[in-house]
Specification:
The radius of gyration is 18 Å and the shape is globular. By secondary structure, the protein is α/β, with parallel strands linked by helices. The protein contains 8 helices and 11 strands. The strands form 2 sheets. An 8-stranded parallel β-barrel has the order 1-2-3-5-8-9-10-11, surrounded by 4 helices.
Length: 259
Amino acid sequence: MKFSLAVNFCSYTHYIPLALAAEEGLWNSINVADGLFFYEKPSNDYPYTEDGQRYWHGKTHFPDPFVAVAAMAAVTQRIEFFTNVLKLPVRNPYLTAKQAFTVACMSDNRFGLGVGLSPWQDDFTVCGQDWKSRGPRCEEMIDIIRLMETGEMVEYHGKYYDMPRMQVAPTPKKKMPIYIGGSADVVLKRCARMTDGWVSVNYPFEKNKAIIAKLKEFRKELGKENEPFEIKILATDIGDMDGFKRLRDLGTTEAVVMP
């Protein structure tokens, strides 16, 4: 099992020093969150706390993940990076593909794209995107990113996106990993079918255990149980070696921890 360093909630001035320290240590990767905006009166509760309240404030730093990864990649040589997670259906798929490919290329293929839906309806409103279709649009966006990643002249005609024949350059020299975060069955099925792995949020151990069991079941149904698949667990409730061993025994490939 490998270890990933989460730099989330730190001052942006800490990102590069932490990347340099992680590069010298035994960390496998650094993961960066995607906190877009802080709403004074959000339209819905935060789904990952018991009381629905946020545990950060409006001045908490959330630099743009593509820019942050590019800055850290520029001063390192070995360590990998991934977003945990990029709010994908809030964005335009073509520009997102362009940004992700550029980061992957300029980091020498050390970048993975972790994606999710965003729990905030307000993110979709202010960015001019539809909230109700976020799940199916996420699927089409992943298809588009994979198609554009070939670097060839391609087109796409889906229910939500209609892409004329076009191509983008540069594109990664090797396949850019895509991961999905979330816990609903429809999301886990999407993850098992379309991506290279799953990333957790601050779920307790037993919930992670149940989700991993479902992922294994879904992948078996798809005939993918023997294909490579990463499990990245945010280990917020793990405080000792026995806890990390329990995560490893679940099938965790990478434990995400914070400084």
